[in-house]
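Consider the following assembly input.
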Amino acid sequence: MTESSEIISEAVEVSKAYSSRPGFGAGSGKRTLVQAVDRASLQIVHGESVGLVGESGCGKSTLGRLLLRLEMPTDGTVWFNGADITRIRGRKLRMKRRQMQMIFQDPASSLNPRFTVENTLTEAITAHKSKLKGRALKAHIAALLNMVGLPVSSLERHPHEFSGGEKQRISIARALAVEPRFLIADEPVTALDLASQGQILSLLQSVQRELGVAFLFIAHDMETVQRMCSRTAVMYLGRIVEFAPTEALFKTPKHPYTHALLLSQLSKDPDLRTAMHLLPGEPPSPLNPPAGCHFHPRCPHADIQCKTLVPLPRPVGENHVVRCHFDFDGNQKSDPKSNEDNLYESGKKEKKRP
Amino acid sequence: MSTADAQRTGKTMLSIRDLGIEISGDASHPVLKGLNLDIPRGQTVALLGESGSGKTLAAYAVLNLLPQVARVTSGEILFQQTDLLQLPAKKMSHILGNQIGMVYQEPSTSLNPLMQVGKQIGETLRLHKSLGRRAAREQVLSLMELVGVPDPRRRYRNLPHQLSGGVRQRVVIAMALACRPDLILADEPTSALDATVQAQILDLLSRLIQDLRMSVFLISHDMGVVAALADRVAVLKGGIVVENGDVRDVLKDPAHPYTAAMLSGDIQGGKMQVATSITQTESAPDACPFLNDCRWARKECRTATPEETIIDGNRMVRCFLHTQTSVTEGME
């Protein structure tokens, strides 16, 4: 982040709760609230790319949708380019919407199968009341295709004629069609095979570089954000537990969950297979989250206050915010309290290798 | 090691020889073109490939579960000297679940949603080992303990949806192990799991593999999973194995350009080397499957698939870079 930074998109303590009924059908069981996002704050600066990582069901997609106001928050405010978009509607909101776009995970289901590529791109442009017509429109579309690396001959084709990676190129072109300033990519490569993954990531990098678009990059694996993002937020069960410059996050994680996520990355080196690092348990159900710090049942450092008190975001370094009661340091040795702790500790030492 | 020898001495658990599969009506594009793969007793052999490489069809062929549209055109699959492809369905059902255990990718779809998980694990035991209800229950409980299901007595009665993803996958593993099979076939065993849970399941599998000295046929697209579990790895591309060798050799010093590209294209390593192939050019059926994206492609790569070449004694590679002895430069 730079000093001259100007924030394009910001969430201020936003929450989103869905009501749900356990069991089948209506009327069976009591209504319960699922806190999908819990007082999350996030700022994205013009031209910057921010990562959002977490395991499935932690609310990262919901937070993304809140930033674009595809969902209305139950609490908190969402700012876009200086306007509180939770309070504007109609034409004003549409004007803002033009500047923010989304790339979805599965291009096969986010493209209309009966539209040609030309239809898809033209619709995106006209839906936002662009004045482009005729030759200028054609030229714009050709430029878009060129940007995402598709031949002009693909204009007449339908989505099923393309491979997964090519389909994702089409949806990137669609998102870029209205010249947005802010893009959210929700797991854009998860549905693709390895070779296309690399290509699509490179494409997104060049898009960001050349157009200066701000990105929120939602992912479930650390490698992707490490490659793509200058700052990264880690979510656990609806809360942003750590938000920091990516380099600092990887080098000195301040939240035990971030540390555990880093340790669970798989190495491609067969000689390191003995150094497997385990976090006990699994993410609890958001229907019934643990009290206090949501992470405490799995945390090797948890004590009494973690079971009752919700940790609040606090700064621990430059642009580095963490929600943990302790000054956790991934490289420091703390007193082992239990067997689980021992496991965890041994993991830490392994990770120190250069 | 010569495969014929290994087969005779019973050291090879599973031997796939020259397996060809095509999708009916499309004889010009076979999915597998003469796949060769051996799984020695007590070893874990991974078949590594991207989606669409044919790795899952190879697994289904072993299980005799190929979809109707797929047809075996050639080859044999020898499991302890029996050709599974020639086996009648009835005999096959004595082998599946009994001598060959299966771990599928998605635990939520491979379990019966309406049956208690303990009973599901016991079903195989009662069927194949003719155990009574009580004896089966005892064994199931010890199996559940073995795979680390917490509180087995209570979990026994649970339905699959009451379990978390990780515990469900442990149940699937317990089912696969129930009859102490000679071979485990694991198709993407951790792909559906979250990162921290994946690490747990991989740890469990690697411990079981060691403790029980299992022979495992692992199917995966993930080099991290392969590195964590396998002894040997075969890299599948375009229906043929392009490289096959000890997992350390192959992943640390790839001999085939495709393996190298997969390793470096892996985003940790930096930039993707594989060039974009937007318009798929129609190449000759015999061309090298990596032709279009290969930096070292030359004339003969377009017209012929390289033969299996043995390098370093214990590694097979199919690439013209290795058919002549001297060419090794540029393989960084």
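Residues 332-354 of chain A have pLDDT under 50 and may be disordered. Ask yourself how this observation constrains the way the partners meet.
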